[in-house]
């Protein structure tokens, strides 16, 4: 519950590192039409003088990319930068980026950053020059959280629309609304109100994964397949020949496939680790309820790893990180499942 006694601790004067990577928050009119990333981290900070009341902000302009073009390699480099710089007396870090991939980037930073200081990922749904641009308010709220003494040990969170979401829960749930970010099934862990962090809950911290070498990431491609009604399994059947090291299958409901795909999944699971995720926004993949062909019990018996609460994108990135760390077979399966239990359910 909210640590009411701490709500009045002053945050101004604390140092925050801002890493800017691009996204709509940095976008202005492009000569070719539409908007495109142009502004640097320094530009963003200059546009929000109120930041001075929340924290002393030092800027690292990493890139000007849209969120869709960020890579796992970028995130490994950013995690390394954050761990190095946070050791130098910063209260926390803010990462500014495109909202299209925030749920994935925040998740990876939550897995890789070892520092106990908070990492706060933010962006904007409206371009920097749009009426009602939300970037300045989001940046101010993010810096407020990163500077807050309450945020120590929080891991990585996403702050937009004055809401604080845990990286492991958060999802982009709308293509245009400033309130696009949600944590389906659990809700936000806090809010920024009157310039202060109000915190309602803390997820347990997971030990940081080893930061993989860049080459090891390239060597660990993972496929993501979402299954729809009537899927005839030809993608699933083709996967073993495509050079992937692992696969995530987003099944229906609690982790189900059409019966005709069950054998294909079993063959795939014999060739590489296969995580069974769900295409449903909230709730975990089941492990022991349904027993029909193609059910979660059938697929797990055929070798699928039950994917817990993580949506396909997050599951994919976790599997890549575990493969890049050199894990295979049962230890990889155990490591994946242990990280799902970081969501706090009774593992039985
Ligand atoms: N719509 C995106 C954004 O909000 C574009 C991107 O991810 O770069 O930033």
Automatic annotation (TrEMBL):
Residues 222-327 form the Asparaginase/glutaminase C-terminal domain. PROSITE patterns: ASN_GLN_ASE_3. SUPFAM superfamilies: Glutaminase/Asparaginase. This is L-asparaginase. Residues 15-202 form the L-asparaginase N-terminal domain. Keywords: Hydrolase. It comes from Noviherbaspirillum suwonense. Belongs to the asparaginase 1 family. It comes from the Bacteria. InterPro entries: AsnASE_II, Asp/glu_Ase-like_sf, Asparaginase/glutaminase-like, Asparaginase_C, L-asparaginase_C, L-asparaginase_N, L-asparaginase_N_sf.
